[in-house]
Design a protein that fits this description.
heterodimer, A: 279 residues, alpha+beta, Thrombin, subunit H, six-stranded antiparallel beta barrel, 5 helices, B: 174 residues, mainly alpha, Arp2/3 complex 21 kDa subunit ARPC3, two-stranded antiparallel ribbon, 7 helices, 67% helix, 2% strand, Cell shape-determining protein MreC (chain A)
Chain lengths: 279, 174
């Protein structure tokens, strides 16, 4: 018995090493599972505030550029608003709930970002206090940015589109053929459009937009343009499409968050009919 | 190691960690060469530090980095691995006559060639673990090797630069 204890004492460093490694691997795995609750991430107050200070300094230098982008977008929205304004008429129709706003938009600022790993995350300066919920879509005027993963009171962490675990339901705009955009972990400016059947005639330069099927993003938000088409080597039934992303992820800083107010209803309907919505 | 030394080492490690998080987090030369300068804090701890406290320090430091990098567990796993291999590697490349008890394996104490042969394999092992954890199941092994190789070159270069610029030669206490 004493011998065993002595032996164990002699290899205590190795035992501790194995223990710590297993702990670390457990942390990796539990953090990457979709439902895994992550307690230690940049949405905690302390870390969020450090990241925010850092972003304040860095983004100060791109203020002019951001302002310009916001102004031009404002102008565009004003233009659209003018088209929508109907002249007062003698007849008024009461709109029913089917026409009620399904999507709600909120603004936010990116305070933490990475693009060099294969699982990239964003940290935003808005949290549950501001009405942010897990599952909300994120985009900016350039295109789709990501999806909220978890929120704390003041901050939230989101999957970047540059995260191999995120699938975005999308379609080719000209032909309405749908598929899923997923990042392959290589270049920060390219992703893949999966599940497009071989018979589809796709052309380089076709626009890829969100399809609105998975109820995260409204239909028609830009993702990118098709830059390369080749037959899929692994699965001959599908095309392998490379999409050049329209969003410049190295310069993402002001973003919009979108929430589908009917998402819970849709989700429970899907559950009730026992189908999983994979797109 | 007296208490004053201990505090100065802890301050150094913390300082390197903060530099890493604030300035080097998004830095990647040509998209493949990352820099993990905070490893210098683990590398130059004195030879006399035992493996058990070293493992704990590396674990804590890796975790600190992970929280900011949003990569929970990856830096932790890699840094722990580095700490464990460090003691083995130190024993393997010990100079004839062994180490003087208080000696620290730094550039100024041991010379350029020795420091390179000490730090490069360790940083390479670290990078391998880190990138394998990062790209698990997503891309080929070649990409991992590529990233690890250039990252360790970059990190070693920067580690040598930092030591040449900021570390006093032959100091009694840091």
């Amino acid at each position: 018995m004493l011998r065993i204890l002595q032996f164990l004492y002699r290899i205590r460093a190795f035992i501790l090493f194995v223990f710590l490694e297993v702990l670390a691997i457990w942390m990796i795995v539990s953090n990457n599972s979709p439902q895994g609750a992550a307690f230690f991430n940049s949405s905690s107050v302390l870390i969020g505030s450090v990241l925010k200070k850092q972003a304040d300094v860095i983004q100060f230098f791109s203020l002019a550029e951001a302002n310009e982008a916001l102004t031009s977008e404002n102008a565009e929205i004003l233009q659209q608003l003018r088209l929508l304004q109907i002249k007062p008429d003698s007849i008024s129709i009461k709109l029913d709930s089917a026409l009620a706003a399904t999507y709600q938009f909120k603004g936010g600022r990116v305070i933490g970002n990475s693009l060099r790993f294969s699982q990239n995350y964003l940290t935003l300066n808005k949290g549950s206090k501001h009405g942010i919920k897990p599952g909300m879509g994120i985009f900016n005027p350039e295109g789709v940015v990501g999806r909220v993963k978890s929120v704390s009171e003041n901050y939230s962490v989101a999957f970047s589109l540059l995260n191999t675990g995120l699938l975005v339901s999308s379609k080719i705009k000209s032909s309405d053929v749908f598929g899923s955009v997923q990042w392959d972990g290589k270049s920060a400016s390219e992703a893949r459009l999966l599940f497009v059947p071989r018979h589809v005639k796709a052309v380089e330069g076709d626009t890829v937009v969100t399809s609105g099927f998975n109820a995260v993003f409204p239909e028609g938000i830009l993702i990118g343009v098709i830059s390369k088409i080749s037959p899929d080597e692994k699965n001959p039934n599908y095309l392998s499409l490379t999409v050049k992303l329209s969003t410049d992820f190295s310069k993402v800083n002001y973003v919009y968050l979108v929430e589908n107010t009917l998402f819970t209803e849709l989700d429970s309907l899907h559950r009730q009919s026992e189908i999983s919505n994979e797109y | 190691m007296n208490i004053r030394n201990l505090i100065s080492y802890l301050l150094l490690i913390l300082f390197l960690g903060v530099i890493q998080v604030l300035f080097l987090k998004n830095l990647a030369l040509f998209g493949i060469a990352f820099v993990f300068i905070y490893l210098l804090g683990i590398l130059i701890l004195p030879v006399s530090v035992k493996t058990v406290p070293l493992l704990l320090i590396a674990f804590a430091l890796g975790f600190f980095l992970d929280v900011f990098y949003e990569t929970i567990g990856m830096h932790t796993a890699a840094a722990t691995f580095l700490a464990f291999t460090r003691s083995i590697w130190l024993r393997a490349i010990s100079p004839t006559g062994g180490y003087v008890d208080t000696e620290e394996p730094s550039l100024n104490e041991m010379g350029l060639v020795w420091f390179l042969s000490y730090s490069f394999p360790l940083v390479f092992a670290y990078s391998m673990v880190f990138f394998v954890a990062d790209q698990w199941g997503t891309s080929g092994f070649l990409g991992v090797l590529n990233k690890s190789f250039f990252s360790s070159i970059f990190t070693c270069l920067l580690a040598i630069l930092v030591q040449l610029l900021f570390f006093k030669r032959r100091r009694g206490i840091r």
